[in-house]
Amino acid sequence: MAVKGEGIVERSLVEDDHILEQEKLIIEGVDVSGRWNTFLAPRVQEDYTPSLEAEVRALGVGENIRRCWQCGMCTASCTANSVYPDFNPRHFIYLVKLGDVQRLAKLADVVWRCVGCYKCSQRCPREVNPAEVMEAIGVIVHRRWGERVAREEQVGTGAYKKQIYGTGRLNLATLMAADLRGLGRQRELLSAEQMRIGMKMFRDSRLFHTLRLGRAPGWSRLRRVLEEHRRSREEVHP
Amino acid sequence: MSAVAYYPGCALKSIDLAYDVSSVAVCRELGLSLEEIRGYNCCGIGELKSDGDVAYVLPTRILALAEGQNLGEVMAPCSVCYGELARAQSVLAQDAARRGRVNGMLQAAGERPYTREVKVRHLLEYLYREAGPEKVAAQVRQPLKGLRVAPYYGCLYTRPGWFTQAGRDPALDNPERPHFMADLLDAAGATVVDHPNQVSCCGGRNVVQDEEGTALLDYRILSGAKEEGAQVLALICPKCSGALDINQTKAIARHGEGARLPVVYLTQLLGLAFGLGRGQLRLGDMESGAAALLQASGFRS
User: Fold this and answer.
1) B142 and B136 Cβ atoms separated by less than 8 Å
2) CATH code at position B284
């Protein structure tokens, strides 16, 4: 067999060292070599958190996870799955329902790769809204295994939230600068390409418009209220 | 006709100014009356959803501002803004408890609460249903004859249907196989190119977080349209522009020249057909060579 475990449905869900193959196998005098000589090693669950689904449902997003009947329409429709075979919404939901933190931890740097295209939610026959369940599972992953999440994601998401909650406006120019500074790539801001775009935007007046974006009117009061609610949420689930 | 509340959002007032000015100009030509929402904030751009109830406060404040201006409908050209507004509108219409919590936060900050129902519309659906192909055709001064255009709808214009009602309300576009943009481009005289990834995602959300994945998604969309003979890709979202226009060089660097294709906004093409001037089209703002292509094809702005 060319690929180990070839022919196993959803092969990407099975870890390599769990697949046992024999070159040639005879059981009770019958030669079962070929497709029948592949086995899965027994698995022992050591770490199990039955409250995980309740934790997801308490987040105020993705509450419909309880409706999921594991049909797999989400994964079949998924944009991120077409780039990363390990990104499998049906499987993520299955792991949360089982409370299988052991396997979810291994996927910490995959779960956030949802692009938010909502193809899954469009097609889900149970209105689970898997796209938003991915947001909720992403929160769990950040809380428990944040250090395993790619730095680009940590910096990118942090910059968005800081700017939107801070000013009530989205300034794409300062956002990109914050991203690059956070990633230690601030020198790229002075690259020939960035200078060209900066000069072009200066000449065509977009730089002026960008500087004028500022803050949303009356934002400081709303900012205090929103930050207070975000803090109280974190205190419930530290 | 009564005015609709116009919510341009943040991108259209800065980097994507071309989409703002061309949308306003095209609506004016078609006799559609817009009233910009005053003192608005960012919609949340989908990045706050993980914060639960708090995330609904931002789009709900925008709906409440429209209500305060006595307008029953909000129209947004940006698909991300539209998605956030449609999400807040549909969720709060069905969940009175959440609506109470969200309004509570608004009122604690001295803001107006959202008390009535405000209808949320995307620019494309608004243009199609309030003007439509016939009125567009009647405004054409310079038909886009011979120009092969690939319409690209992206995600949030229709998805998910239980926020937008697309696929449920038969008057709205079809989420699996939309046609509103193709019909308007056809009315403007363009040759509409059918291509495989019209409703696939551009990865715009992760342009910084995941350059590699985004470049692959963009390559698939751009090369798929190019292989079908498109000269230009037409957009209805500034986030898609960030991925497909501004970051196109990254898709080319990773996957080759197949990803090289000029990108423009639908409203820039309609405006060009209407004979609008440079200041209302701002074709030069686009990064992937649309201005040069359209000039070489003999179209004058």
Assistant:
1) no
2) 3.40.50.11810
Task: Say whether A119 and B206 touch across the interface (CB within 8 A).
Answer: no
Q: In this structure, what DSSP letter does residue B242 have? A: I
Strand order in the sheet with B263-265: B191-192, B148-151, B232-235, B263-265
Helices A219-236 and B96-108: crossing angle in degrees, nearest 10, is 130
Instruction: State yes or no: ipTM above 0.85.
Output: yes
Please name the residue of chain A whose CA is at the shortest distance from the CA of residue B155: A117
Do B277 and B148 share a structural domain? yes
Contact A225 B109 (CB under 8 A): yes
pLDDT-derived band at A6 (thresholds 50, 70, 90) equals: confident
Asked if pLDDT for residue A13 goes beyond 80, the answer is yes
CATH superfamily of A52-148: Alpha-helical ferredoxin (1.10.1060.10)
Put simply, the answer to whether A152 touches B209 (Cβ < 8 Å) is yes
| Interface list for B 249-278 with A (CB within 8 A) | none
| Per-residue pLDDT at A44 | 83
Contact check, Cβ <8 Å, B41/A83: no
Please check the confidence at residue A234 and state whether its pLDDT lies above 80.
Answer: no
Q: Which residues of B touch A156 (CB under 8 A)?
A: 206, 208-209
Of A152, A221, A225, the CB nearest to B210: A152
Percent of chain A with pLDDT over 90: 74
Of the residues B74, B93, B122, which one is the last residue of a structural domain?
Answer: B122
Angle between helices B266-274 and B180-187 (to 10 degrees): 20
Out of B10, B167, B209, closest to residue A156 by CB: B209
Low-confidence ranges of chain B (pLDDT < 50): none
The H-assigned helical ranges of chain B are 17-29, 53-68, 79-94, 96-108, 123-130, 132-139, 161-164, 180-187, 211-227, 238-241, 248-255, 266-274, 278-281, 290-296
Give tens-digit pLDDT for A81-138.
999 999 999 999 999 999 999 999 999 999 999 999 999 999 999 999 999 999 999 9
Q: Tell me, yes or no, whether B36 lies in a domain.
A: yes
CATH number at residue B81: 1.20.1050.140
